[in-house]
Amino acid sequence: MHVALTGATGFLGLRLLRRLLDTHAWVTVLAHAGSGDALHRITRSLELTGAPSAFLARLPERLRVVETDLALPRLGLSARAFRELADSLGAIWHSAGSIHLEGDLPELRRTNVEGTRHVLELAAAGRAEPVVRHVSTAFVAGSRRTGVAYEDELDDGAGFENAYEQSKYEAELLVHAWSREHGRPALVLRPSILVTDVPSHPELPSHPLQVVERILRDARRATVAAPPTATSSPNGAPDGSSRGAHGLPGPGARPRVRTVGHPHGRLNLLPVEHAADVMVRLSELPSSHGVDTYHVVHDRDVPVPTVVALLERLVPLSIDLVDAKPEDPSALETMIDFYPGITAYLTHRRRFDDTRVRTLLGPAAVCAPVGLDGLWSGLAPRSGALPRPPDTPPAPAPTPCA
């Protein structure tokens, strides 16, 4: 079976490509037209994430790059090129999409909804009836913040935290409608928040936590004047301030932000490499005649206080979780609140049910816990790392995912 993949230069798509090349001689990459040399970017990203040199050397002969535009009918191709592409495929993985949590709905629909529509048109046009593997998100569950979200659920009754969630929900509706219309199976994969412990690099694709970091950093820069240079005390904190619980300067050296959150809240964070492996394993199982949907999630959530501690490491802020929006918000709090659906996740206590995945895959579905140090490793720049407090022992080496 010959496969095509959209979004191969993205955070998840890059790992999916690496995994697909384990079982396929070659892969067609549907790259965004005009975005630069996709083969070079893929090769460089795989190099930075540890791919062996022998694997990298064979990429030019194993990847076929077709430049497309997902926002256009026929993916921006001529009728003949579109037909030839469709007829050459046995499976289409649709991983491309916008993860801009602060994006507006029309913008996100152009990429996430219309892009899905045009990929489905490609699948419908192929004589070999290629199977569709659509990457969605567990957050199509919307703004329901407690209880259990099940894989068979797909409704908008609770509304959405942001336009991103709504656009991915609408894309899933298209997949279901396509399956019914053509009587063809489809696979919908719903990952949670994907992370990595691979150190960040300007040439690597960004991921959701980096998006949140950028928003917080931009908000702080726009509303808070740079503090005067301080002389460091022996323990590394500016004179006159105390050390925080995570080895950072105390609250006196950074602005405080009050944001609505639940101290017992939790978020589902999953290593992207494990997510790609689970997705490919699921795609190899027999399919039903309809839409098979799976939550690709961690079996253990990360407590919200851990996420807050991570954000405080990344951005010079002190974050206080409160029950309700402050009646006297600061300029910084107002700026952060301007981005809908970002900090709202700090209130979430729901769980994503993945019984089906664990039943089908067994130990292969299980992953080591995600902790603060691992999250920091995947966000800290490679040029340096945050100094560890002197009284904090080194973290044990993480247990690899199954």
Radius of gyration: 22 Å
H/I helix tally: 13
Sketch the major β-sheet. Answer: 7 strands, parallel
Strand order of the largest sheet: 3-2-1-4-5-7-12
Contiguous low-pLDDT stretches (5 residues minimum) are 226-252, 383-400
Percent of residues in β-strands: 15-25%
DSSP strand tally? 15
Write structural notes for this entry:
- With 402 residues, the protein is α/β, with parallel strands linked by helices.
- Helix content is 35%, strand content 15%.
- The protein is built from 13 helices and 15 strands.
- The chain has helices at 11-20, 38-48, 53-57, 59-62, 79-87, 105-125, 163-182, 208-223, 272-283, 304-314, 331-337, 355-361, 372-377, and strands at 3-6, 27-32, 63-68, 91-94, 131-135, 148-149, 186-191, 193-195, 256-260, 266-267, 269-271, 291-296, 302-303, 318-322, 351-352.
- The strands form five sheets. Strands 3-2-1-4-5-7-12 form a seven-stranded parallel β-sheet, sandwiched between helices.
- Helix 5 crosses helix 6 and helix 6 packs parallel to helix 7.
- Residues 5-279 form the Thioester reductase (TE) domain.
- It holds the Pfam family NAD_binding_4.
Layout of strands and helices, then pairs:
Blueprint (H helix, E strand, L loop, with lengths): L2 E4 L4 H10 L6 E6 L5 H11 L4 H5 L1 H4 E6 L10 H9 L3 E4 L10 H21 L5 E5 L12 E2 L13 H20 L3 E6 L1 E3 L12 H16 L32 E5 L5 E2 L1 E3 H12 L7 E6 L5 E2 H11 L3 E5 L8 H7 L13 E2 L2 H7 L10 H6 L25
Parallel strand pairs: 1-2, 1-4, 2-3, 4-5, 5-7, 6-15, 7-12, 8-11, 9-14
Antiparallel strand pairs: 10-13
Helix pairs in contact: 1-9, 5-6, 6-7, 8-11
